Amino acid sequence: MKIDFILKGNVVTETRVIENGWIAVADEKIVQVGQDMPPACDHMVDYGDGLLLPGGIDAQVHSRTQAGQEDFVWTTRAAAAGGVTTIMDMPYDDGFLVCNADRLLQKAHEAASQVRTDFGLWGTIDPRVGAGDIPGMVQAGAVGFKFSTFETDPERFPRIPAALLAECFAEIARYGLVAGVHNEDDEFVKSAIREVKQKGLSDWSAHGLSRPALAEALAITQIYEIGAATGCSAHVVHASIPRGYELCSAYRQQGVDSTIEACVHYLLLDEEGDVARLGGKAKVNPPIRPRKDVEGLWHHLAAGNVTIVSTDHVSWSLDRKLNENMLANASGVPSLEVIYPLFLTELKKRGLSLSWGPRLLAYNPSRLFRISGQKGALRPGLDADITVMKRERWTYDAQASANAFADWSPYDGRELAWKVSATYLRGRMIYDGDTVMAEPGSGRRVRPWTGSLPQ
Questions:
Q1: Region for residue 9 given its phi and psi (left: phi exceeds 0; alpha: psi -120 to 50; beta: otherwise)
Q2: Which stretches of the chain drop beneath a pLDDT of 50?
Q3: Residue 135 · residue 414 · CB < 8 Å
Q4: 253: number of Cβ within 10 Å
């Protein structure tokens, strides 16, 4: 076999670091991975002591949450600059709930002309219609199904009641796909919001008080119990409390297919420092928690209780994030452009293996979405999606970036120890360390492997 090119550097897999390693690529695929002397090749790129990692797979991206904002042209541009080669986009688009096969296919068609990286699409349901549209969305290639136990908006982000959630889980289980759920108990949170408003609280502390940790724990328990009852793969899409990871681990030990996700902001930001300083710029749902909870999440990560790490990326316009009344601000933050540098920097700071990066940002996400036969690892036969990181001290500034739509970030001013120096998608360089080279429409859609689909 003729090798197209070889990359040299320190190869970081989900289990180990191969110093003085190399990766051989041919016909868009990885064909060999080794150490020390590589095979002969006319085109070899030596990144020295740089890291060669699998391209990131971001499980939770919101490209169209606010109409007129970034869309796929910009989310995938930011992704490429951040070492992410595949995004999984959420179904809660502004004015367009992706809740049936026609809508999923329409979104896929529109995204295909914009994307610079590969992408997959989550589906959901309209609670007024029920679970009947799930088989059609499976046939149309949904990578998974997203629901919420809390109603942010009855049209764009509806709550799915427990009985209907169980019906959906049972249907999804027939296809072996994942059901991801936003984890906040609707009644509990709405009661807490009323109490905060009655007390006249509106500063940075109001948001955390309005969405208590117990509301998360109650919802997480419901999600896993429904998974246990239906045999469905039950995934909590963002847990901000240590108790959530304890519950996931306990259910997993009981044989339940339970998984759980830590957004990068829950691992890096805290309430008393960052939320107090940033206000609406650090508002997310569930809320950023106190430092003791952040440390609890890192304890669970080191213990292997975190399944994946994601961004939950959304680039709200600043006018939706600067209200003095904390509760009036939109929820969500951008971070696609810096996910790999943020996570690797914190791993190094905490003395944890760099292999946690590939494991939680690529390998485990590929398994969650049933695409591990295509992506997610540096192994022969898989797509040559490769992120190159160099050791460099630098300070992030979203406004100065040419590759992020938002001109603000909760990570502005944060000093990082690693920087993306190249991103390869299926063997083609799409980012050279400064400029995203991939044109809109050059990415491809990924679909999960579902075996033989039930008729």
A1: left
A2: 452-455
A3: no
A4: 9
